[in-house]
Design a protein that fits this description.
By secondary structure, the protein is of the alpha/beta class. The chain has a domain at about 30-155 and about 190-200: Rossmann fold (3-Layer(aba) Sandwich), CATH 3.40.50. Helices cover about 40% and strands about 20% of the residues. The protein contains 7 helices and 7 strands; from the N terminus they run H-E-E-E-H-E-H-E-H-E-H-H-H-E. It has helices at about 1-25, 70-80, 95-115, 130-140, 160-170, 170-180, 190-195; strands at about 30-35, 40-45, 55-60, 85-90, 120-125, 145-150, 200. Strands 1-2-4-3-5-6-7 form a 7-stranded mixed β-sheet, with helices on both faces. The longest helix has 22 residues, at about 1-25. InterPro entries: AB_hydrolase_fold (IPR029058). It comes from marine metagenome. This is Alpha/beta hydrolase.
Amino acid sequence: MNGFFSLLAVFYFAVVMPLQAAEKRLPLKGEVFTIQKHTAFLILPDKPQAGKPIPWVWYAPTLRGLPANSEKWMFERFLKAGIAIAGVDVGESYGSPKGRAIYTALHEHLIKKRGLDKQACLLARSRGGLMLYCWAAENPDKVRCITGIYPVCNIASYPGIKRACSAYGLSAEELETQLAKHNPIDRLELLAKAKVPIFHIHGDQDR
């Protein structure tokens, strides 16, 4: 029986995981790969500036179907300016420590192995705000700037503590008690001290 489960595990990591990565569809030509079993992507400009780290935009959330075709026009302009785009799917992490650890792994990979700049320009769309802001608060030296497109910045307002607590491995009561340790709106001082520029675009619909 143990041999059977071992065989299943080998099949999953050797076949299923690569297929999941391959299924990721991007709005523009790019590379899909995995970071610690999570699907990631990288879209590089055709002619990056030789001899210098490549500037890049870190897009979140990279859930199934994202980034979408609606971002294509924006990505094309980034690439034309010599700017790469990257991201990793951490699921519905809501900015949890586990999700942040995967973000750190992606950052290290892109800097050490792909020639990207140490400082990323964060592009947080919707609940990507929870993911990127939580990581940024702990890594302000790795952030050049933050742009938000109707970004979520308060766990209590979305998705709500009861819905988010499982992603944190906590009960609702525990997360509520520890909220200030994880909530973007409670962690802005760290980014302000680092003088990280922030620009948000907001409307009345999350689309």
